[in-house]
Design a protein that fits this description.
The protein has 404 residues and is of the alpha+beta class. Among the domains are: 56-65 and 310-403, conserved putative lor/sdh protein from methanococcus maripaludis s2 fold, CATH 2.40.420; 85-194. It is 35% helix and 33% strand. The protein has helices spanning 2-53, 116-151, 157-189, 239-242, 388-403, and strands at residues 56-60, 69-85, 91-96, 103-104, 109-114, 192-194, 199-204, 211-212, 223-238, 250-254, 263-275, 280-288, 299-306, 313-316, 320-323, 326-332, 338-342, 344-348, 352-357, 365-367, 380-381. The strands form 5 sheets. Strands 2-9-12-11-10-13 form a 6-stranded antiparallel beta barrel. It has a 4-stranded antiparallel β-sheet with strand order 6-5-3-8, with no helix packed on it. The chain is rod-shaped and about 195 Å long. The N and C termini lie far apart (120 Å).
């Protein structure tokens, strides 16, 4: 019995070894398959991650703004002619004949001033003139008499010359007295306060019996007359738009109390100087107001239609990149690689901007570029999208129309 067991034991050992070897091979195959699967999965994950890291962007060509742009600025209406009327002579107001809102004609009487002091001065001047005339007549007859006596050798040449010189002096005194009378008569004419032109009385700051002081600008005016048939409009234009403003341009006005109504105006002139404190150019426009709809002094919005710039390209403001190196725009270059281009803005219109330099009409501008985008990064273009430049322009024009 023991002999059989010893004989069969080597065979069983070999069988067990074979089974172990097979199990080892199977385990090695399972491990190899698992490693291969993980390596493949990792490669796929790496490839997928790399694909997902490529940003998907919308690119569009910059669009020239062929319809131009509208520049809207605040302005102030002013009467074409406005004259504050002051007293030229002192006295007391005797009466007034025109109150605020009265339409007056040139030369129409507005008020009368009582001037007792001036009246007495005029009477004295006229009396002095009469005295001077009487002395001048006496000197003339005396000079003529002494001239005849000189011809008869009855008087000396010296005495005759003295009488002649006295006549000349008396004639000069008469001329001075006449000038003084005319001066006082001219002042007397200022007792009557008249309208300097056709217009409307916009102020009356005096009343009957009020003490009137002579002089202009030292106190409140007695009356104020304005001619509002034509109005001036003053607008301060920013320096970056000053080059586009030229005399003869047409503009339109809107006022808050008449929504939807536009008034035509014409640019008359500019002051040809930039104000240092505000950096603006003062512009003067003229608007017809014969119907009296517009009121001097009120606020208005002035709409300028600026000429188009053939070299300016319009893009949405969302395409701009603000970094330490300056203002940039991302475009799609060769092999769908991003390229950052430095640009300069010609006009900032809020939702979109006009680029003065740095872009070409054939560039493909990326809208809303990622913050991490750099030159050379690969990008994926979106299949179909609306041109953001067209959308921005449409929104801007719709906003202007609703605003106007």
């Amino acid at each position: 019995m023991s002999t059989e067991i010893q004989i069969n034991s080597p065979k069983r050992l070999r069988h067990l070894k074979l089974i172990g070897l097979v199990a080892l091979l199977v385990a090695a195959g399972v491990v190899a398959a698992g490693v291969t699967s993980r390596v493949h999965a990792k490669q796929e994950l790496t490839t997928w991650s790399a694909q997902q890291a490529i940003p998907t962007v919308v690119a569009y060509p910059p669009k020239p703004d062929t319809e131009g742009q509208s520049l809207v600025l605040p302005g102030r209406l002013s009467a074409f002619v406005n004259a504050p009327i002051y007293a030229r002579v002192p006295g007391y107001l005797h009466a007034w004949y025109a109150d605020i809102g009265t339409h007056v004609k040139a030369g129409q009487l507005l008020g009368v001033i009582d001037t007792p002091d001036l009246d007495q001065q005029l009477q004295q001047a006229r009396a002095d003139l009469q005295n001077s005339v009487a002395n001048e007549k006496l000197a003339a007859s005396t000079a003529a008499r002494w001239t005849r006596m000189l011809q008869q050798d009855s008087v000396s040449q010296q005495d005759s010359d003295e009488k002649t010189s006295d006549l000349v002096a008396k004639q000069a005194t008469v001329a001075a007295a006449e000038a003084n009378v005319r001066r006082l008569e001219a002042l007397e004419s200022f007792k009557r306060i008249t309208a300097p032109f056709d217009g409307v009385v916009t102020a009356r700051t005096t009343d009957i019996g009020a003490l009137i002081n002579a002089g202009g600008g030292n106190g409140p005016e007695l009356f104020s007359v304005s001619d509002a048939r034509q109005l001036r409009v003053y607008v301060s234009v920013p320096q970056d738009e000053a080059a586009a403003i030229q005399p003869g341009m047409n503009a339109t006005l809107t006022v808050p109390e008449r929504p939807g109504v536009r008034f035509n105006a014409k640019l008359v002139d500019t002051d040809d100087a930039i104000t240092p404190s505000s950096g603006t150019l003062l512009v003067q426009l003229q608007v017809d107001n014969h119907d009296g709809v517009l009121i001097p002094g009120e606020y208005t919005e002035v709409h300028f239609d600026l000429p188009t710039n053939a070299h300016a390209l319009s893009i949405p403001a969302s395409s701009l990149i603000f970094r330490q190196s300056g203002l940039q725009v991302a475009v799609v270059g060769h092999d769908n690689r991003a390229e950052l281009k430095p640009v300069s803005i010609a006009t900032d219109l809020g939702t979109h901007v006009e680029i003065a330099s740095g872009l070409n009409a054939t560039d493909r501008v990326i809208d809303n570029p990622p913050d991490s985008l750099t030159s050379g990064d690969e990008v994926r273009l979106q299949g179909s999208a609306t041109n953001p430049a067209d959308t921005a322009l449409a929104e801007r024009r719709a906003a202007e129309n609703s605003h106007g």
